[in-house]
Design goal:
Structural class: alpha/beta
Number of strands: 12
Largest sheet: 8 strands, mixed
Mean pLDDT: 83
Distance between the termini: 118 Å
Order of helices and strands: HHHEEHHHHHEHEEEHEHHEHEEEEH
Number of helices: 14
Strand content: 5-15%
Strand order of the largest sheet: 5-6-4-3-7-8-12-9
Helix content: 25-40%
Shape: globular
Radius of gyration: 29 Å
């Protein structure tokens, strides 16, 4: 190519660039928050510092045609909700829940001093009536009429804000939006310790995506409370200890130390090569009795328990007559054969470190068959999520199971919906077995409880929280003693 041709090509390229249209994009700036409210005028702001990878706040995706409700349009009366599921729920409540006004006769025995039925006395003159009137502030059917709602407005105001929060959370869960809070991190480097002090420190050190809204945090903890309740007690970094107000007893430290010895083994020097092959111990068995909703949780949620203890394997065993409820399309129950006499559903490919088995059967039936024997305090643990041990409607189902659980001498972790529910279970255990129980952890609020409140469709005034409280117990271990002979007694004296 000649020199003139080169010069012409260069100048034509420059002119085309000069004449090209330049798009002017808006500069993203951080919104001013506190300074304007304090009467100050911001002069200059430093550019926003980038958040480290893994902790960046992922913005919500653009609303698509699948989104039914906008984030600023979540409050609706249950009866007028745009979601059919919510409207069906409102119709169910209006035909099953009774008005809590004290002028109506009692429909059942009070469950606690805070139960609205406890305010209904013998002077009640009106028959029971279903809830028909929806509170204009919370949008949930709470009274049979506007007059009764206004008459007990002060009592209703104690829970009205929480009921509105429940209303908006239910609509948000079915709004069709994208849920970044349901994306869970994978395995973590062992050198990066997980802080188990509370939800904030756990989510930060575990490198979850940043959750900056309270509603998103409530939705996330609703699922994570199940594996984290177990992990926070069994971990060597547990927030529960034997110090003052630490809630852990001396017997509890003995039992949990045995499990922690297994869950936190020393490094073996193994790797993926032939020379690095090492024998692995059997998995730690966690028996979850009376399983209901927790058995149908996404397996990614339960894997978070395995990531807290990367050097060991887990075998989760869900046991209970409702452990496979509404899951026939997902896992049809297998036939009971000589090789599978109890029709267990086995999921052995959840991960390399976790296996899940489900038995639609009562535990005392499996215990009498000797299916899981022998039990090892170093390898086994029982968990009861909201068992209702002392509830009048379910206590008879645990009467045969409780003595068999105490025979194993294995730690038993139990949770409750409320403080009253948990305390009722503890009293029932003490009444049934008396001095045959060692308390491992005193009853109290669970640091990893669900932050989202739930509504009882049979009683709108009955609010509960998943795994609100937790405590632990075990069958009593007697200290062995040696019977000295008479001559040995004389020598010691």
């Amino acid at each position: 190519m000649s020199l003139c041709a080169r010069i012409w090509k260069t100048t034509s390229t420059r002119s085309s660039i000069r004449n090209a249209t330049i798009l002017k994009l808006p500069i993203q700036r951080r919104a001013v928050t506190s300074q304007e409210y304090q009467g100050q005028t911001p002069i200059d702001e430093l550019p926003e510092i980038a958040t480290p990878p893994g902790l960046a706040n992922t913005p919500a995706r653009t609303l698509s045609g699948n989104v039914l409700l906008e984030p600023n349009n979540l409050f609706h009366h249950f009866s007028d909700s745009p979601l059919p599921d919510i409207r069906r729920r409102a119709a169910f409540m209006k035909t099953h829940a009774y008005c809590p006004h004290n002028s109506h006769h009692r429909t059942r025995m009070p469950q606690s001093p805070h139960d609205p039925e406890a305010r209904k006395g013998t002077q009640s003159t009106q028959p029971p009536a279903f809830v028909r009137f929806e509170c204009p502030d919370c949008g949930i059917p709470v009274s049979c009429s506007e007059e009764h709602w206004a008459d007990e407005y002060e009592f209703h105001m104690e829970i009205c804000d929480t009921l509105r929060e429940v209303n908006e959370d239910d609509h948000d869960l079915r709004s069709g939006r994208f849920f970044p809070e349901f994306e869970y991190p994978g395995p973590q480097m062992e050198e990066i310790l997980v802080n188990m002090t509370n939800w904030d420190t756990y989510l930060y050190t575990r490198e979850y995506q940043a959750i900056n809204e309270e509603r998103s945090l409530r939705q996330a903890t609703k699922l994570l409370t199940y594996p984290l309740t177990i992990g926070s007690i069994l971990s060597e970094l547990s927030p529960y200890d034997i110090r003052q107000n630490g809630r852990l007893t001396t017997e509890g430290l003995k039992s949990l130390s045995a499990l922690r010895y297994t869950l936190h083994p020393p490094r073996t020097g193994g790797d993926g090569t032939m020379k690095g092959l090492r024998l692995k111990p059997p998995p730690v068995r966690i028996f979850i009795l009376g399983a209901r909703a927790e058995s149908s949780l996404p397996r990614e949620v339960w894997l978070q328990l395995s990531f807290l203890f990367p050097r060991v394997g887990f075998h989760l065993i869900f046991i209970g007559p409702e452990s496979m409820a509404n899951r026939d399309a997902e896992f049809p129950l297998p036939e009971r054969t000589p090789r599978n006499p109890f029709g267990a559903v086995v999921e052995d490919r959840v991960s390399h470190e976790m296996k899940i088995s489900t038995f639609v059967e009562y535990y005392h039936t499996l215990h009498q068959a000797g299916l899981f024997q022998p039990y090892d305090p170093y390898m086994d643990c029982f968990v009861l999520f909201h068992p209702g041990l002392g509830h009048p409607a379910s206590s008879h189902e645990w009467a045969d199971t409780l003595p068999q659980l105490l025979e194993t001498k294995v730690p038993i972790i139990s949770t409750g919906y409320t403080e009253w529910d948990m305390e009722r279970d503890r009293k029932w255990v003490e009444e049934k077995v008396g001095g045959e129980v060692d308390i491992l952890m005193k009853p109290g609020e669970n640091k990893f409880r669900s932050l989202r409140w739930d509504l009882n469709d049979y009683d709108p005034a009955d609010l509960n929280c998943g795994n609100w409280g937790v405590w632990s117990f075990r069958g009593k271990r007697y200290v062995p003693f040696i019977l000295l002979s008479r001559s040995d007694t004389e020598l010691t004296n």
